[in-house]
Amino acid sequence: MNLTISPIYKGPHSTIDHTAAPLYQALCLYETSKRTSMHVPGHKDGRVFDREAWGRFSSILSIDATESVGIDDLHHPTDFIADAQALAAEAFGADHTFFLVGGSTIGNIGVALTLCEPGDKILVQRNMHKSVFHGLLLAGAQPIFIAPAIESTTKAAKVSDIRYIEKALKDNPDVKGVWITNPNYYGMSQDITRLAETCHKAGVPLIVDEAHGAHFGQVEEVPPSALSKGADVVVQSTHKMLTAMTMASMLHVKGNRVSRERLAQVLGMIQSTSPSYPLLASLDLARRYLVTEGRTHLKETVKRLETRRKGLSNELKALSIWEGSKEVHYRDPLKWIISCNHEMISGYQLLDLFYEQGCTAEISDPRNIVFLFSLNEEEDDIEKVVEAIKAIDGKLQQWSMMDSREKGETVLFAEEGTLYKQEISLRDAFHMPRKRVALEEAAGSLCGEMVLPYPPGIPLLTPGEEITSTHIQTIRELKEMGAYFQSPSDDTLKTLYVLK
């Protein structure tokens, strides 16, 4: 192993050297120095650890360092972390990149606290991850929610049509920004060029939760990135679609519409003062792999996947693979959306069927499941998924679909473009006294908890939101179909907290 740390720049007129991994290489030097640790962490570079598990963890423990001399400090980077973040910024087209060790959750909370003071308004797409709502709650913001568009075949939520957002901005000129999710969990992405221009004309930043699009813009075979289309701040889960370790994510900033100084201050407040250096190094390595090998692998993988998807689509009889639509500008080829042609079979049932077949999907919903592929999928790995799909397709063809009734659509959001302002802020609702009532008696009350089908972690109800009869019906339908709800106050969902 070469333990010298490669410089980012080879000379004053040269390009950035992406074969370098400065933070990872610094940890390797730390490991080989074999200095006696008289500082945290308490496992002392692996000297003191559970005997049975030591063999599995030892190689990580030896680089599980802290902010000691020669490694750099995440909260005041001046050396190896600063270099690693600079390399990432170049690779992803940002002016500055922050490394995150709490997932995109920390990035979203950090953005909310950076943009919003108590009482500030911000225009937010309603189908956002719960971390956005939590960030707005902590900031004391007054979000104006805009209902998303719904793709007609999959019924998946996506960015609202630009005309609705333009009108919302015109009617609410005092908002601090516009915040959207793009792509959605299903890999559907809209062209946000005009939206970015609209936001900038209105003098506000465009914030994009691009958790599932860290690979976007890296090759022509995948959709373009949000940064390339004019977004000001982008949060990416580098561990989801790229190769970083779980919880390792990045926050990218472009331009000066959002204060990097304040953002750095906020991240220093909400991220651990003892961050995991193996996680941080995995971000450094994920960037290096992407630039030096991953882009080539991604192009090859997309070609393999598209060939198999098109062939499989013609063979299936009971199942179908979504091929895109005119309603969606870009489709992520690394995600296959599978549904049953008979609507009485839910995505939750398909999830169980594929699990029994040895194939675990990323997400299920009332209609679909989603398979998520990596940057580098060989033919053999793809074939295993294809064979599982064929096997389930054959099994479903043998089923007697006796119930021919049309299945009603489960309503998750209001009509596209609908604006919703809570009478009570998220923060105030969180601190108000509450009481438990039967679900069927909750209509008309203000919700006292977050009702969260998971994944994808988009709240059906938030604290302070008015509960309607549609909400109650949707909760019942999702529960009957086998949906998983994260952290409800009542696992049966027969009761719910409402505000007193």
From TrEMBL:
The keyword Transferase applies. InterPro entries: Orn/Lys/Arg_deCO2ase_major_dom, Orn_Lys_Arg_decarboxylase-I, Prn/Lys/Arg_de-COase_C, Prn/Lys/Arg_de-COase_C_sf, PyrdxlP-dep_Trfase, PyrdxlP-dep_Trfase_major. Pfam families: OKR_DC_1 (PF01276), OKR_DC_1_C (PF03711). Residues 22-324 form the Orn/Lys/Arg decarboxylases family 1 pyridoxal-P attachment site domain. SUPFAM superfamilies: Ornithine decarboxylase C-terminal domain, PLP-dependent transferases. It comes from the Bacteria. Its cofactor is pyridoxal 5'-phosphate. Keywords: Aminotransferase, Decarboxylase, Lyase, Pyridoxal phosphate, Transferase. GO terms for molecular function: transaminase activity. Residues 431-479 form the Orn/Lys/Arg decarboxylase C-terminal domain. Signal peptide: none annotated. Belongs to the Orn/Lys/Arg decarboxylase class-I family. PANTHER family: ARGININE DECARBOXYLASE, DECARBOXYLASE, PUTATIVE-RELATED. This is Aminotransferase class I/II-fold pyridoxal phosphate-dependent enzyme.
